Amino acid sequence: MSYIFYNNLNERNLTQEVVRQISETKTWIKACNLLFDDSDIRVALTDALSRGVALFILTNLEGATGEVFINKFSGKRKSAKQTTQDLLHSSSIKSLYDAGAHISGLDGLHAKFLLTDANCGIITSLNFTPNSINKISELGVKLGREEYDELEEVFDYIFLRPDRYRFASYDSHFTYERPSEEIDCDQLSRMSRIKMTLAKTSRGKSEALADCDIHDLRNEIFDIIKSTESGEDLYLATYSLEPNAKDADGVSLGKHLLDAKRRGVRLHIVMREEKKQVIKGIHINYHKDNHAKAVLTPRRGIIFTGNLTTESFESGFDLGVCLTPDQITDTITFINKLKTQS
Q1: Coil, strand, or helix at residue 188?
Q2: 4-192 maps to which CATH number?
Q3: Where would I find the Phospholipase D-like domain in this sequence (predicted)?
Q4: CATH number at 216-341
């Protein structure tokens, strides 16, 4: 089996797999996601806590903590501004925290993966939001044992060195502390097919990632594109794409795609319609709800959590996993399905 899962139209096998892994857990769950405000996921996690399962959450809490500041001129207390998404995320995190979850917050986090005690794990584009869980197109891949082991190491290491932890929960906000130890990327083994962006970010205070400089997710994506040959098919699925996003040598994504086309490579590009970009000379399929992310040929491919953008390539925390031949075949089938819907 290839263990590729997806959400598309009425098919929700990715959501079902995530809920299954949570529901079958007996001792611990390690969940990393940008957002945690879907009620079905929250209920599944809360039920796990009620069974005595230890829940560890690594998330992005920028804007979600509802911090309260003292105005230095008036002396009055004032809460930081929060979006509706911030408030929903904050409310869900507070609920899980009050139910016994252990929570760490990393500024710039955009990665999405789930690990459980049953040696189950999945990397996915899926945010734990009602939109991703129930409505839009998403993609995920079940982890092999080596990838599972590496991601558990990454999770544990970052969880103990976040930007925000040790919460005290109040009605409208959290207080928190942060450890003094920054993340040292040299301490990570990096031995499997996992590829990452782990680098300083402009989001939040960015203290934990201040000395990080891992960009092999970007390098893998560009290497796949550059390795394509005449007569070969190249598939790209993304939420957003920036033609000017650059590789390590400063060459833009747009130029690499044009060069591939000139070599005789057949391009199959799907991106979210609302994020529409134009590259002169290249056809792009604009899909109404795509949030899946993958770059692949019939020989080589990767599913990842970021986008084809400068931010995802250069900063924060995103990751992906290189695919097996069977996973490549199933992912191409999924992207072709998106193309017919565009």
Answers
A1: coil
A2: 3.30.870.10
A3: 19-157
A4: 3.30.870.10
